[in-house]
Amino acid sequence: MIMTQKYLGYKRKQDFLTLVFCWIAYASTYVCRLNFSAATPELSREGVFTEGQLANISSAFFICYGLGQLISGVIGDKLDTRRMIFTGMLVSGLCNLGLFCTESYIAFLLLWGLNGAVQSLVWSPILKIASVNFDAPTRDKFGIHMAASVPLGTLSSYGVSLLTLLFLPWRYVFLNCGLVSLAASLVWIFGTRGLFRSKTGRVVQTADNSSARTALSARKTFLLMASSGALLLLVPIVIQGTLKDSVTQWVPTFFTSEFGSNTVFSLALTMLLPIINVTGAWFAKAINRRIRNEPLTAVIFFAIAAVFLTLLRLFGSSSLVLSLVSMAVVTNCMFAINVMYITIVPLHFSKTGRVSTIAGFLNAAAYVGCGALNLLAGALLERRDGWDLLFWMWILIAVIALLFSVAASPLWKRFMQSDDADA
Q1: Three-state SS letters, the chain
Q2: 254-259, long-range: CB within 8 Å, 24+ apart, which pairs?
Q3: Region 104-127 average pLDDT
Q4: For residue 179, how many C-alpha atoms fall within 13 Å in the half-sphere facing its CB?
Q5: 357 alpha-carbon distance from chain centroid
Q6: 386-405: average pLDDT
Q7: Dihedral angle at the C-alpha atoms of 88, 250, 43, 149, nearest 10 degrees?
Q8: 131 in Cβ contact with 140 (< 8 Å)
Q9: CA distance 375 to 385
Q10: What is the pLDDT of residues 48-61, one digit of tens each?
């Protein structure tokens, strides 16, 4: 009992260390992802880039990250996941160091797009490590605990950015966050040496198919996703990704433009969001424990988000407090849905040996869709009534996501009762 409590409910020290190092790895990607959002108001205020150009740069990350997920998801089931994660962290840090040295729009597009591509090497391999090293109950626990790395990374990114902008120009945001990622990559590669083992004690270097019944072809994987309802989930996954990342992306700009807040104050307000969002994973877990159907759990959170997006549209421009509360509730709901769809859903496919592939596919949909809709957001914000139009768009897509989640729920229930599901 004492040993169990000592390792946060994990029976082995190796399992707990696996969580810790995966936490560090994934949190570091957010440090070098949201720092661009933190620097956006300064880049706009100083006239370095227009709103449209900033949206294009942001979308370059999302689209490259999403497309990279398609590749990393597949190779994550075949190659050394530990080195894949190290490569993503290392090159992401180097990309940020490159941005420190330039104000070129083309260079920002290329380097931020490359940053997205290499960061795609991290998440799917992490889920592959979980599928190989843990049993089903431990995998679910790992998934919930890993979800907390997102608010941690978000808070770290905004914290480093805020402290930097208090004393230094915007470019140093990319330098400092890049150094954080480089340091984290070294912690990962040296700290995880010989750590990951399968249940038989064999060190996991490449894909371990011992847990898979068969090696599924791409066609069989597609049919499995269709029959389980996972394909229908692509639409709400795209939308939760848009509402989670696009709202976070534009929060500092919204406070600056609508309420005249300076960049540092806007970032300080934005830092409240990840503190609140960390509770989303536990809310999702508690509700799903009763419902036992991830899409139906997501329906509840999409409905709540739609209500608060409506409040944001109707009253947000007149009240900073209401705007902050509404955005906090929306991002908290999207965080809860993200845990259900991007973490828990793929882990239920562990028996098929395609956790990394399916996780990559679902994550790809989230970020490619987010990138496309973020381009639209940038175009809308260049209009006089841009914020009103953007809020209406967010309300509409939240309702669409709710309807698709409802449609997918009976298929998912049937899948979870089948022999293919790792329930």
Answers
A1: CHHHHHCCCCCCHHHHHHHHHHHHHHHHHHHCCCHHHHHHHHHHHCCCCCHHHHHHHHHHHHHHHHHHHHHHHHHCCCCCHHHHHHHHHHHHHHHHHHHHCCCCHHHHHHHHHHHHHHHCCCHHHHHHHHHHHCCHHHHHHHHHHHHCHHHHHHHHHHHHHHHHHHHCCCHHHHHHHHHHHHHHHHHHHHHCCCCCECCCCCECCCCCHHHCCCCCCHHHHHHHHHHHCCCCCHHHHHHHHHHHHHHHHHHHHHHHHHHCCCHHHHHHHHCHHHHHHHHHHHHHHHHHHHHCCHHHHHHHHHHHHHHHHHHHHHHHHHCHHHHHHHHHHHHHHHHHHHHHHHHHHHHCCHHHCCHHHHHHHHHHHHHHHHHHHHHHHHHHHCCCCHHHHHHHHHHHHHHHHHHHHHHHHHHHHHHHCCCCCCC
A2: 254/323, 254/387, 255/320, 255/323, 256/41, 256/45, 257/387, 258/316, 258/317, 258/323, 258/387, 259/320, 259/323
A3: 93
A4: 8
A5: 16
A6: 90
A7: -30
A8: no
A9: 17
A10: 888 788 888 988 99
| pLDDT, tens digit (0-9, with 9 covering 90-100), for 154-197 | 888 988 998 999 999 999 999 999 999 999 999 999 999 887 75
Own/partner long-range contacts of 19-23 (Cβ < 8 Å, ≥24 apart): 19/142, 19/145, 19/146, 21/187, 21/188, 21/191, 21/192, 21/195, 22/126, 22/129, 22/130, 22/142, 22/146, 22/149, 23/145, 23/146, 23/148, 23/149, 23/152
pTM for this entry: 0.74
Q: Which one, of 306, 302, 294, lies nearest residue 416 by Cα? A: 294
Q: How far apart are the first and last CA of the chain?
A: 25
- Residue 259's nearest CA partner among 167, 324, 166 is 324
- Of 357, 359, 312, 354, the closest CA to residue 333 belongs to 312
- Name the nearest CA neighbour of 354 among 232, 201, 193, 221: 221
Sign of CA dihedral 337, 152, 46, 101: negative
Q: Encoding tokens for residue 327? A: 């955005």
